[in-house]
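Can't attach files on this board, so I'm pasting raw text. These are the components:
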Amino acid sequence: MSSQDAVQNTVVVGLQWGDEGKGKVVDLLAANARHVVRFQGGNNAGHTLVVDGETVILHLIPSGILQPNTTCIIGNGVVVDPEVLVAELDQLAKRGREVGPDSLILSADAHLVLPIHRTLDGLREQALGGSKIGTTKKGIGPAYEDKVARRGIRAGALLDLARFRRHIQGTLSEKNRIFADWYGESTISDDELVEWARPFAERLAPYIKDSVAHLHAAQDRGDPILFEGAQGTFLDVDHGTYPFVTSSNTVAGNAAAGTGVGPKDLHAVVGIAKAYATRVGSGPFPTRLDEHEEEEMRTKGGEFGATTGRPRSCGWFDAPMVRHAARLNGVTHLTLTKLDVLSGIKTLRIGIGHDTPEGDERFSGSPVYEDIPGWDEDITACRTWESLPPACQAYVERIEALVGIRAGLISVGPGRRQVIPRDPLFRSTQH
Ligand code: GDP
Ligand code: IMO
Ligand code: MG
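---
Top answer:
Structure tokens for the assembled complex are below.
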């Protein structure tokens, strides 16, 4: 085996509808990675890190940024709102974490989210009324539309505002027609858009680089790379609950296309699932709780969106969905998060199937449940499998059997150290 084969490049993805705790797990695994790269999505993501009692929410900067000695990369597959990125750099600086171009790279090929995209996202949602997607209104969908329509603007254009001005002509004239003729809204001039971009261009220029070349050089040196997914499997534009999805592929396979690292170099895939389920935005949610129980779980789990502050819908763990997600992502290591939130619930339920006739639309049937006795003990201080109450162990073991993968990491609280590592991949982060 060459030294290259031994390198553990690891992809971290969500197996439900997002907010599974990806930020926390990436922060943890980043202790062993030299490079942490985001490969899709944009600032629709909100990834929460709790380190030494301090909470940091990241939207664009990879969750490896609080570990010393990591380079964070915003890959070519991400869509980037320059205004949000600059605000995030400022927020970190205020907390004493100055992020310079030596620790953050913005791919010159990443597409930009412009104010016209945000506006269009909002107008489209408004027009959909009761059948809205429930997007984050951050302009993510319209930015990816422009990318695929081959009229998008890439970060590299910020390095030369004359070029930026030329590049925006196509998308701007089209958007202005839509704003004025379709929605009866005001238009925006190219001067206004260039002036909007100017301060961000100046600030971000030192960070804009060839991220593919950086990653390939890292591979040549044998540095481990961590790939940070955003959103979750059932928000994937192909595999999710379409049309109630986001506008990118969220599955692990996209870690290759979204960064320029070949698929044979994605060695491990960590799939993260909450010990229950949540969803924010519209769309099917078969195991959703009734209003009263949902309120209780939302309060216990602090289930409010990290990006929009919206209350998350809550439900029971849906085993067939997570099993399917594990297959779609090629999951090698399962992580269960927020197990502590279930303490004190007398009887827990796990969705084990859907009573939908074969061939019917997926996600549409009512779920079939298995009831499992709960536990009362507070488990937030548990650090070993043996210290978990037997009922809690039985709940995890039932999930493992239904999903078909052992839980290599169990998370019992928001803090970086509130974990039970069972697999060597995670145990090695605990020094
Ligand atoms: P992400 O989008 O997947 O990174 O997840 P979010 O940060 O949006 O949402 C996860 C929330 O759960 C955050 O507030 C985390 O601090 C919190 N969290 C993560 N793991 C645990 C856990 O094991 N227990 C509890 N109680 N909270 C957790
Ligand atoms: P993280 O990375 C949860 C949801 C939105 C909406 C749908 C489409 O924190 O897990 P978009 O703005 O992407 O066009 O909205 O996707 N959504 C998320 N839900 N976590 C996220 O990210 C999400 N990013 C988008 O609520 O239903
Ligand atoms: Mg989130």
